[in-house]
C-alpha cells in the first residue's frame, strides 16, 4: 500500500487534477465574491441552513473557495486545500440531495445566480459532478505528499542555498 | 523515488494529519478575515446575520402525471367498470351529465385543489373501478385533462380524459369559446395603432391646461 502511495507518477496525475479542481473553484468563487447578496439568496433558496447562518456562509465560503483554488494551482499546502474542498463537496452534496428530495426546481448556484436556473438546474447529474470532484479531492489529499509547485521549489531552493 | 525522499521529510501519520487540519483551519480563519474586511469595505456590503426572511420563489414541480386520452364514443365510458368524473361547473353538471358521473367542479381561478385531488384519489382507491374517466369543458386548455393529470400525479393508475370534453359526449352542448388563432384576420391591423396613439395624444393635449 505504501509503495502504491509512494509512486512518483501520482505527483504528475495529481498536478493535472489540482489544476482542474483549482480552476473550477476559482471560476466558482468569482461570481459569489462579486455578488454576495445574490449568493446569499441562492443559499437561502436551498432552505437548508438556518437564517442566521445564511449570510455568514455566503460571505466566507467564496473566499475559502478562492484560497483553496489558488493553493491547488500554485502547489501550496495542497493537502490542506484538498481537505477543505472535500469538506465543501460533502456539504454541497448533502444540501443538493436535500433540495432534490424536496423537489425544488432551482439553480445549483455553483457558478451563477438563481437567475440562471434554466441554464444550470439542480439534478442528480449535478450530484454526480460533485461526487467526481469529491473523489478528485480525496485523491490529492491521500497521494500528493510532495506536490509539484511553489512550495516544493522553495524547499529545494532553500536546500541548495543553505 | 530518491527525489521524493529528498524533498519530503518522514513524519508520523498523526503528525501529518494534525498539520493538514491545522493548515485547513488557518485557511478558513484567513478566509473569514478577508471576507470581513472586503464586506466592510464594500458600499453594498451585506449584514453578517440576516434578520428578515429572504424572498425566495422556488417553483416546486406539480405532481402531475400523464393520463391517457379517450374518445367520447369509447365503449369503456359505459361498461360499468369506470369511475366518471365531471369537472365542469355545478350548473353545467346539473344541466346535463353522463349517467353515473360524479360532480367534481374544477375552478381554474380557485384555490389549489390538492386536498380535493387527495380526497378523490382516496375515493378512487376505495372504489372497485378499473379506471377513472374525467371529462371537462373541452376548452383549450381542457379542465378535464388538467384534472386527469392531477389524478395521475397522485399515483392513480388508468386515468383517462375525454378528448373534447362534454361537448364530444353530447353534441347539443355549446362548443367552448377557445382563444382565437394567432393568424386571426379579424384582429385590427398593426398599422392602425400609431394613428390611434396619435389620436389619443392629440386628445390629451387638448385636455391639458
Q: What can be said about this structure in brief?
A:
The complex is a heterodimer of chains A (162) and B (209). With 162 residues, chain A is an all-alpha fold.
Query: Low-confidence stretches of chain A at least 5 residues in length (pLDDT < 50)?
Result: none
Order of helices and strands of chain A: HHHHHHH
Report strand order across the widest sheet of chain B. 1-5-4-2-3
Number of strands of chain B: 5
Low-confidence stretches of chain B: 1-7, 182-209
Individual helix count of chain A: 7
Main attributes of the structure:
heterodimer; A: 162 residues; mainly alpha; 74% helix; elongated; B: 209 residues; alpha/beta; Oxidized Rhodanese, domain 1; five-stranded parallel β-sheet; 5 strands; 41% helix
Model description:
The complex is a heterodimer of chains A (162) and B (209). Chain A has helices at residues 2-5, 9-34, 36-45, 51-74, 78-102, 124-143, 150-160. With 162 residues, chain A is mostly helical. Chain A has one domain (2-160). The longest helix of chain A is centred in the N-terminal third of the chain and has 26 residues, at 9-34. The model of chain A has no long low-confidence stretch (mean pLDDT 89). Among the domains of chain B are: 2-40; 68-169, Oxidized Rhodanese, domain 1. Chain B has helices at residues 2-7, 13-41, 90-95, 114-126, 143-153, 166-169, 192-207; strands at residues 68-70, 82-86, 102-103, 131-135, 159-162. In chain B, α5 links the parallel β4 and β5. Chain B is elongated and about 85 Å long. Chain B starts with a helix and ends with a helix. Residues 1-7 and 182-209 of chain B have low confidence and may be disordered. Chains A and B meet through α3, α4, α5 and α7 of A and α1 and α2 of B.
